Amino acid sequence: MKIYTTKNKSPFYTLVCEEIILKDEQNHDDILYLYQHKNAIIIGRNQNIYEEIKLEEVKKENIEIYRRLSGGGAVYHDLGNINFSFITGKQNHSYQKFLEPIIEFFRLLGLKAEFKGRNDLIVNGAKVSGNAQIIYKDKIVHHGTILFNANLAKLAQVLKPNKLKIESKGIKSVRQRVTNILHEMEEQIDDNEFIFRLISFFEKKYKTKSDDVENYFENGISNQENFHQISEFRKSKNWVFGTNPFFSYENTKRTSAGILKVLANIEKNLITKIKFEGDFLSKRSIEEIQVILESKEFSRNSLEKELGNIDNLEEYFGLIPLNEILDTIFGN
Predict the structure, then answer these.
(1) Which pTM does this prediction carry?
(2) Packing angle between helix 300-308 and helix 322-329, nearest 10 degrees?
(3) Domain-terminating residue out of 241, 261, 294
(4) What is the pLDDT of residues 210-223, one digit of tens each?
(5) Number of domains into which the chain is organized
(6) Do 271 and 228 share a structural domain?
(7) Where would I find the BPL/LPL catalytic domain in this sequence (predicted)?
(8) What is the pLDDT of residues 243-261, one digit of tens each?
């Protein structure tokens, strides 16, 4: 295991580094990458930005918006939030397995932490860490957040709570679902001390020393041929906001494994365009499924056959079962 950190606080640096490392076919090392963002919203790959973010507030607060490669929900990051990425070629994709060392660290701090739901860590019944994954060829990134001393008021100010999620969980606001690690600790330490202890824990656990992520790259990240190209693309409106063509049909459902929204154009009983949105935990690009379904007959039997023939369907829709995907498509 190699451990990297960075002092850069922009997602257009930190997450571009993560992407380049993930796609580096010369790298065969397991990597842990720790980073922070000063003032940013990181939105899930399959989410509709207009439904997730209060854009006027975001503009007023000069908050960066970054659409990540992984699925899951939108999160607000400030310097009270610490982020981690495990990049590995190992085949065990279990969220719980990746989070075992984080739970171990929390318990050393005297916290009763546990894995809950699809992708969360909780302390005393409240969420302190959300996680997501992305698969690229034979490698995977598992990345997550740690709420240490984040501005929870700002989080509620800039993110829109999803009504389906609130109704299903019986909660009144975004802020009631989360807490800060600092508020749950008996010992009061500052952000820098927490980060120091986190890095020291991993250095001891993996018997290595951390290094600046710049040193991963032979000539520095700024000299990477594709760094600026990727960073500029991730900033582009086409990537951040996506294209929003007119859809003649849509349906949204709270499934057993996340919110799924389907938008489609149907002509002469054929799918001419289809799009999936939501906070489901996809590990691969959902666009691949959309391409497969275009031009197919718009019937349950037809789509059940098409989707049923995809062996790794869970890598696109997370843990949403096939019958619930079909129920959402056909409004059942």
Answers:
(1) 0.86
(2) 140
(3) 241
(4) 999 999 987 666 56
(5) 2
(6) no
(7) 26-210
(8) 666 778 899 999 999 999 9
